[in-house]
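User: Predict the structure for this protein chain, please.
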Amino acid sequence: MSHSDFKAKMNKGHQLDRIDTIDSFDFYTTIVSLDGIKSEQFYEYSRVGACTNIISNLRRDAETEIEEISKDLITSPIRSISLIAKAGLRNFQRIPSLAHSLPFPVLDLPEVWLGDATSKRLFQRDDDVLNELSVDDCFNELYAGEQWVKRFSEGCL
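Assistant: Here is the predicted structure, written as structure tokens:
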């Protein structure tokens, strides 16, 4: 839709049914540049609507991507990768789109390894999928995979 077509529709009071992410930005920039805007409230609704649309489209796209990736990783034969993928998906679903900070008490978090070679579980919850994964278990599983890749690459030389 050209700028003049858009301006004509807006002047006649037409509403746009669906605006995708790029169109939302174009919509907002067109609204800002229109000479005939008399209502400050219309301008504000247009800005908020465009931004809300952009955010919801980005969130929807991110949800699609994380669901596809986690579906593959959850079926990994390596237990630690599978558990971390489950936790990642659950954490994504628990973090609000416009969060200014992370809600750590409700996230699935792994055990942490401290500087004195001890480990601690912060924000411990009974339903945390990472409760059954220790730092040592994760290291041992991933190290075994690293060693396999190293042997394979040496064999290819």
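The chain is about 60% helix and 5% strand.
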